[in-house]
Predict the structure.
Amino acid sequence: MQIGVTLGTIMVANVLMIIIPGQKKVVAQLIAKETPNPDFGIKAKQRSLHNNYLTLPVIFIMIGNHYPTAYATSFSWLIISLIIIVGALIRHFFNERHAGKKSPIWVIVPIVLLTLMSFVLSEVDTPKEDTFSPKKLSLIESEFPNDLKETVMEITSYKCSTCHVKNPSWEGMLKPPKGVYFHEFKDLVNNYRGIYKQVAASHAMPPGNITFLEEEERLVYAKFYHKVQEILEEKN
Ligand code: HEC
């Protein structure tokens, strides 16, 4: 977003501070029947070429912020850099073509390569919040106190299972919401942060408290979260 704002500001400033003032001066010179200074035209052309190369990257940023694929990775800075180059290459192709020159077909090679690279970068660092390896899961499970485990599983089966199972019984619900299901204890552990946020830190779940989750039960989820945290800290 910051890169988009910066590029957009540059584009507006080019028009507002260089192109329009230059044009006004040229018009004034023409009205006064003087020969207009060509400098203004040259500068305006240069700035509008800059803007021309920036358009596609800016459009990408406007739309891309709706798609985590583009930015929800620690390589987002690299992805945007590649896309800026790709955008400029596409513009270059059309600029040459529209100027009546031979279309620079060669740009297709870097465009395809750089686009592929950004897809790979987006994929290698997909966020996988809360998903533990099987080894870590069984470690957490074995360290976890049994009574708390039973309590939390019991509450979950009463208060969450109409929706958060692979085949929800909630009318009209075909799949568990957001793919979050709680069949076994390890499913809870895999979502321990999400559960904490939804149930203990806020009252977002159950929606509208439709299954009447009590305050004490929310506290049980808070305890569950802190216990998982504690085990993780001890073992690291
Ligand atoms: C009436 C159905 C229903 C019940 C009951 C319910 N949930 Fe949900 N849950 C949903 C829906 C719908 C969403 C998806 C919300 C969204 O898309 O933002 C969701 C999302 C979630 C998420 C993922 C949130 C995210 O943004 O990643 C968690 C975690 C969660 N619920 C935990 C629970 C827990 C724990 C309970 C029981 C205490 C519970 N839910 C009870 C319907 C339900």
Q: What stands out?
A: Residues 134-235 form one domain. Residues 2-31 form the longest helix (30 residues). The two ends are 36 Å apart (CA to CA).
